[in-house]
Amino acid sequence: MKYNIQLQVYEGPLDLLYDLISKQKIDIKDISISEITKQYLKYLDLLEKMDLEITSEFITMASKLLEIKSRYLLYKQKDDEEEEDPRLELMEKLEEYKKFKIASQDIKENVSYINERFYRNKEEIVVDEKIDLDDISIEAIKNILPYIFKVRISEEKTTNNDEKLNKIVRGRIISVEEKMTELRTILEENQEFMFTKIINNCDKDEVIATFLSILELIKAKEIVVIQDIFFDDIIIKKGSEM
Amino acid sequence: MKREDIKHIIEAILFAYGEPISIKELNYIVNEDLSSKEIEYMINILIEEYKEQNRGVQIIKLENKYQMCTNKDYAGYIKKVLEPKKKKTLSQATLETLTIIAYKQPITKIEIENIRGVKCDKVLQTLLENDLIREAGRLNKIGKPIIYKTTNEFLKLINIEKLEDLPPLETYENSEL
Amino acid sequence: MKREDIKHIIEAILFAYGEPISIKELNYIVNEDLSSKEIEYMINILIEEYKEQNRGVQIIKLENKYQMCTNKDYAGYIKKVLEPKKKKTLSQATLETLTIIAYKQPITKIEIENIRGVKCDKVLQTLLENDLIREAGRLNKIGKPIIYKTTNEFLKLINIEKLEDLPPLETYENSEL
């Protein structure tokens, strides 16, 4: 049997998030941050598997979601009335985005794709009466082409390549699962190691992923962590289950 | 100058000029000694006359400018003579960006990108090239960012006469996609 | 079809088409089942109405063709309104028109005007006089419009051997909405 998988393409991370939320038929206010993060990452995973482009905006949002998720865990534990719900900013953004998204559907319906009204062209008035043939050259033609035919010069292609390269260099998305495997491998070779060691050279996304994977491993009792004093480095050791 | 004359001069100007023209410009051309109220009054009479008789030619108002065009009812006949300029279909990204500019104008690129959550350079370029938005100066803050507004072409595209004809944004607050 | 409608359709066509048009062509566009006598009758009524009221716009008959134009009495105002803010030199206007013809040939005047957004009669005249373009027959459609092509003189002027040596348009990305 053949399955026809059609992957929806989203305009950006907000578009994707909004779609995930509307599919659940829940209000933006009621989103479960861990559920939405899970689904979001799953979609990015799918894109990666299908070898589709993942732009930097999607990756930034992924780390942002993870950040909100971890901050939300702390927020819930503390139950501090003073502190703002870490989800709030994202919700407001989504609410705002939603309005325009729906409004754009209305605009789309109003667009008439063929002119119903016809206008007149104006007479052209020129300053001088004489034409200078020296002004007509292949260079001059080249220069006005973009203005006349409203075409874009293809220098974009080079920037596109740069962008792609950038993405390959720094755009890899790090899943928590991946990090967990990485940590397990390190523990096979070392009895213990420092948290700062493994996050050396990592960007923000990766640090968050590392941190979350540590939390997961603690939960699974695969590791224990020791911190002598606040803000000191964290020592990670094999746990009882390993 | 007789009132009837003013009306006919306006008619001649609208016909010859072809593009949207403002009361102020009309006032300057017809007779600077007249008040702009008088010009506005006369053009409104003209619009009504054309409309009432369902003439082949109509005068439409776009924002604060006026333009002569053919009556929609006869579009089918005109298409027999003139190839209608087909408008391109708008992509979702273009539509969203255009909608944000329409409601939030004047607006900068960064503000648009904040709402959409993605870079908008390419889409803005497309909108500018198709004359649906225009650069309307720069903001007097760091970086002097360009501010964008929609054009009369945009109004023509979605068949409205002024921005106020857009449904208020609040109507979308509690609606579902 | 009501008589009043016929009159207004003719009005709309004359306005939008801009060029002189014959009874036969109008007949074809409005309704082939009507007699050309009927069309002629209606256009004469229209001409009379415009004349009687000394409207800003008039319909004139040239040879056996009809065209809409502004009323001579208001020529002073029209001159004032057509005075552009940013004037182009004849060379600039010519270069633009020539480029369009070079890439889009064979092309008619109306097609050129639709790309440029202005009437091009004068510029085309200059190009013909300087032997940079030539008339290459007529199109078999309403108005039998003349089609234009560039000449060998044009190739010599810009130092290329054949049209294929023009910078290819394919290297320019078509902007899509």
Automatic annotation (TrEMBL), chain A:
Cellular component GO terms held in the UniProt record: cytoplasm
Chief site of localization: cytoplasm
Keyword vocabulary terms for this entry: Cell cycle, Cell division, Chromosome partition, Cytoplasm
One Pfam family here: SMC_ScpA
Compartments where found: Cytoplasm
GO annotation terms (biological process): cell division; chromosome segregation; DNA replication
Listed Gene3D superfamilies: 6.10.250.2410, Structural maintenance of chromosome 1. Chain E
InterPro entries given in the database record: ScpA, ScpA-like_C
Entry keyword annotation includes Repressor: no
Recorded family membership: Belongs to the ScpA family.
Subunit structure: Component of a cohesin-like complex composed of ScpA, ScpB and the Smc homodimer, in which ScpA and ScpB bind to the head domain of Smc. The presence of the three proteins is required for the association of the complex with DNA.
Function of the molecule: Participates in chromosomal partition during cell division. May act via the formation of a condensin-like complex containing Smc and ScpB that pull DNA away from mid-cell into both cell halves.
HAMAP family to which the protein is assigned, alphabetical: ScpA
Protein name: Segregation and condensation protein A
UniProtKB/TrEMBL annotation, chains B, C:
Quaternary structure, from the entry: Homodimer. Homodimerization may be required to stabilize the binding of ScpA to the Smc head domains. Component of a cohesin-like complex composed of ScpA, ScpB and the Smc homodimer, in which ScpA and ScpB bind to the head domain of Smc. The presence of the three proteins is required for the association of the complex with DNA.
Subcellular location, record wording: Cytoplasm
Domain of life the protein comes from: Bacteria
Protein name: Segregation and condensation protein B
Stated family: Belongs to the ScpB family.
GO BP, one annotated term: cell division
Its job: Participates in chromosomal partition during cell division. May act via the formation of a condensin-like complex containing Smc and ScpA that pull DNA away from mid-cell into both cell halves.
InterPro entries per the UniProt record, alphabetical: ScpB_csome_segregation, WH-like_DNA-bd_sf, WH_DNA-bd_sf
rRNA-binding listed as a keyword: no
Cell division keyword on record: yes
Keywords: Cell cycle, Cell division, Chromosome partition, Cytoplasm
Main location: cytoplasm
A matching Pfam family: SMC_ScpB
